Amino acid sequence: MKEPWRQLPHDFLVRLQTIVPGDKLQSILNGYSVKRPTTIRVNTLKTTRNDLTELFDAHSISYEASDISSISLVIRNEKRDLLELDAYKNGLFYIQSLSSQIPALKLDSQPDEKILDIAAAPGSKTTQIAALMNNTGEIIANDNSRIRGYKLEANLKMQGVTNTKVLISAGQSLWETYPEYFDRALVDAPCSMEGTFTTTNPKTYEHWSMKEMKELVQRQKWLLRSAVSATKPGGIIVYSTCTLEPSENERIVEWLIKKEKGNVELMEPMIHIYPSDLMEGFFVAKLYKRSSTIPKILQH
After folding, report:
1. Pick the CATH number of 38-95 from 3.30.70.1170, 1.10.540.10, 3.40.50.1820, 1.20.1250.20
2. Is 191 an active-site residue?
């Protein structure tokens, strides 16, 4: 029987062999061919892990702990079992892949800080950051699409988030409105989404193309640079994607560091998460802003 991963785009499979470690290639291909379990994050703005798991026990929802965080759970039931719960409709938990939860954890936002989420919709990471801050401080959640902005606002409301303002604007110029204003910034950039491909759902990869990837690279560069300019000296910037492509990942970070000439540096090694039976593919880089990157006349 033909391996399921062979139905992925031919050009992607050829390229994949050149961009991932050879000893990981087969496990990555296998990771594209499995149906992953649903994973969730407990919404600590509305409940606790203990209260939610008691509710799951009462409704015969089977769950396991996750290594990502103490409030991340792997669900062994069908997703529809979760969607039928009042707890879901009332925002007591958020359905979110485990990999997707890592960037906000790396951002490590502290109470009362000012945070930028520059490409925020639909709000998975915004709601996670708000919960980590216990609704203190200020989050600016930006997206360039009004339609996606509506979804973002709906998710914020459902999750009980009150410390966040939604902006609909071009992220690449947002720094002009907020020059060196934020303590931390998250750039979860639009990407080719190679980490989320799954052969069980052809829609996840039907739009992939090399042409689109090259267009995305320009957007990623300017979103990251804008976020850096919107962050105070001494601040933290996390850049993340759900793709495996180096031109969208480490090459973007390398470009930024070179462009900013010593003002920005990596805090720790970049993280590559490859598709597996539990995790989607993801890339995360944590940056530190050493000194100002904008003209003094524009500084607050």
Report:
1. 3.30.70.1170
2. no
